[in-house]
């Protein structure tokens, strides 16, 4: 009961807006928010991080800084894409192009992004996070996308962009690298194949190494066997 009364008091008297007005002209504390994904409903992780962010912003405000903050929403691409593929019953990028059409597919994906918006706003307000919910931004907005390209351009002009190699999780079905978040979406138990294969010993008649491997898909890239006397 106390919680609801306090929330009503804040909203009716525009307490958050007044805190911003009082801070006008004071040193700016820029708050870059890593926005939550809108591809699912809010959970404990969202509430925890939102509370920490709100605490930092309130603390800096009380220390005499001007701390404007807007709510942002991450319109996460791959989970949304997979969801729409299932909804439209397509199984590949080729089917999207031939059966559905890219424009129709993109519209369906864009519309689905906002399905959890209302419950997210309600949840964040319930935990008392002070922010501007009327002027929120989306990572699918052209203005946001262009700002990311602008940052990349600045890095390029300063010589901070370079080409290198790294190991990235990759989804052959989706045809794209995966982030750690996407990899953590779930695992399933599968039966991995293992095989025995003969490797002929050079300059010896009818002599072979018999090798057992649980990663047979790597065989096409193998150029030698690593063998130790004590193994």
Please explain how this structure is put together.
This protein is an alpha+beta fold and 231 residues long. It has helices at 2-13, 15-22, 44-62, 77-87, 93-100, 102-113, 117-126, 142-157, 180-183, and strands spanning 70-73, 132-138, 170-171, 176-177, 195-200, 208-213. The strands form 3 sheets. A two-stranded parallel sheet has the order 1-2. Helix 4 crosses helix 6. The longest helix is centred in the N-terminal third of the chain and has 19 residues, at 44-62. The termini are far apart.
The H/E string reads HHHEHHHHEHEEHEE
Strand content: 5-15%
Structural class, from secondary structure content? alpha+beta
Strand order of the largest sheet: 1-2
Q: Give the number of DSSP strands.
A: 6
Overall average residue pLDDT: 87
The count of helical stretches stands at: 9
Q: Which percent bin holds the helix content? A: 40-55%
Cα shape? elongated
Radius of gyration: 27 Å
Q: How far apart lie the N and C ends?
A: 70 Å
List low-confidence stretches: none
Biggest sheet details: 2 strands, parallel
